[in-house]
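WP5 quarterly update. Target: Amino acid ABC transporter permease. Source organism: Streptomyces lusitanus. Length: 278 aa.
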Amino acid sequence: MTDTEKTPLPPKRKGLTRRQKRSLSRGIQYAVFAAAVIAFGVTADWGRLQNQFAQVDIAERMFPDVITLALKNTVLYTVTGFGVGLALGMVIALMRLSSVGPYRWLAGIYIEIFRGLPALLIFIFIGVAVPLAFPGTEIVGGTYGKVALALGLVAAAYMAETIRAGIQAVPRGQMEAARSLGFSPGRAMVSIIIPQAFRIILPPLTNELVLLFKDSSLVLFLGVTLEERELSKYGRDLASQTANSTPILVAGLCYLLITIPLGFVVRRMEAKAQEAVK
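Structure tokens (predicted):
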């Protein structure tokens, strides 16, 4: 008997290999997606959509006010709200990490309340409840100050937890090394720990900025003048005047002019952070 006859041949595989199954699954998903796109393109009434959302003459009348007024106010509301939220969030984060019990309890209560409430209710509270509780008291900056405060109160609850996590992510040896060099705990925190923490939390903080940019649309519940309108309010007003939704589409595109580049920046920072870890 020859060696070939003695050695049994390996059994033939039945069915598809794992790689073939993945390729088949991917192909099916692409086919379903393409079919959905084609079905949408065939069944949608593009003429009505263009008539309602893409009137060039209406869009042209929005410029330059949609940029110089509405977009400018939106950016201003967002930046000031982010500044208030960052400052307040830093204080709350440090209270959360404090060894003093009442500080930790107050910070925890604040975070749970303002993370649990919708941002809309915060705007209504600032616009209605505060004037009723403190008659004759005006928030500095008028509408701009109210929006900055409302956005800041909402953002601070989220930023506080982000900052706290960043501080705790810094190795403890950094604080010990600073103390051995004669730094006080407070100075070591400000000079050594917090700068390192911000390098860690920069991507989520930038993401919070994107969220605030969209939340600024809630300013309409405070009651604003024509010169204080942001993108959403500006688009809605013109849509009502023209009985057409083109202004809303243009306002949405203006939001994307800010949010898409910011989203790209966040992804780049996250990628660099991962490379640094490797």
